[in-house]
Structure formats: C-alpha cells, structure tokens
Amino acid sequence: MEDLFLKFTVGILKLNKLVQRIKVAEMKKFGLKSVHVMCIYYLNEHRDGLTATDLVKLTLEDKAAISRALSGMRQMGYVDYNSSSHNAPVRLTQKGVELASYISTRIASAVDAGSENFTPEQRDFFYKSLISISEKLEKYYNDLPKHSGQDGE
User: What is d(CA 7, CA 14) in angstroms, rounded to the nearest whole number?
Assistant: First the structure.
C-alpha cells in the first residue's frame, strides 16, 4: 500500500528546502538572503509600492523578518521608503529594479528546470492541483477545533 501521507509531506518539504537553498545560492553574491527574493519579487510586481504589512501577508514571513529584510535592502540601495512613517509604502530603487530583473530570469530558469519533462498541460494541471490542495488544507486547518491549544507552527 502506498503511503500517500509520506509521499506528500516529504515531497512538499523537499521542494520547500530546495527552493530555499536555490534562493540562498542565488542571493549570496548580492549579500542578501532568501527572504529578500520574495520581497523584491512582490515589490517588482507592485511598482506603486507595498507596505511592510502587505509584504508580511504576501510572503508569509513574520513581521520581524520583513522589517529586517527591508532595513537591509534599504541600506544596500535596493528599496526606498520613509522610515519615520509607520507602514510607509516601500518601492524598488533603480538598483532594485535591476536586481528584480535578474531574479525574474533566475526564477524562470528554476521553474523550467523543475518542470522540464512536463507538457504545458501537465504543468498547468500540476499548479492547479497544488493550489487546490493548499486551499483545501487551509480550510481543513481553519475548521479544526480551536480548543486544541496548538497550531503546529
């Protein structure tokens, strides 16, 4: 009998670890960490700017990690924001836009490498399935009895 739980959880954990390692390897030469990849990605997608709160929601990172990431990226000249204003919009600088372009190219290469044996239809099915599983598990989690006192995080 197949152990679907084991296949699923180990597969997802391995994918997550590999993605994190790829982010670390790609960002090392810029003095950045994996958390910076998603911040820069989302800021590039929202050129009008995003607040730190927006980035927390989008990246699924905690507030302190985003705060540290933004501070470091600001010091390195990748983003700009008014640090005296609470939750001010953060925008990429020209240097940040150039890094975002590099990141986009590397993301495309990684996605292509990860799905090189997929037909376009298989790739579409895979992503639709992944999103569906994520949504169903989120609903399952949200429907768990709240009196358990543990959230597993």
Answer: 10
Q: What is the DSSP string of 49-99?
A: -B-HHHHHHHHT--HHHHHHHHHHHHHTTSEE--TTSTT--BEE-HHHHHH
Radius of gyration of the chain from its Cα atoms, rounded to whole angstroms: 18
pLDDT at 48: 96
Per-residue pLDDT at 62 = 96
* DSSP-based three-state secondary structure for 152: coil
The model carries a pTM of 0.85
Domains and CATH numbers, the chain: 12-117 (1.10.10.10)
- The span from the first CA to the last CA of the chain, in angstroms, equals 30
Backbone φ and ψ for 56, nearest 5 degrees, come out as -60, -45
Q: Which of 117, 107, 134, 95 is nearest to 8 (CA)?
A: 134
Residue ranges, the chain, pLDDT below 70: 1, 147-153
Contacts of residue 36, Cβ cutoff 8 Å, sequence gap at least 6:
27, 30, 69, 72, 73, 78
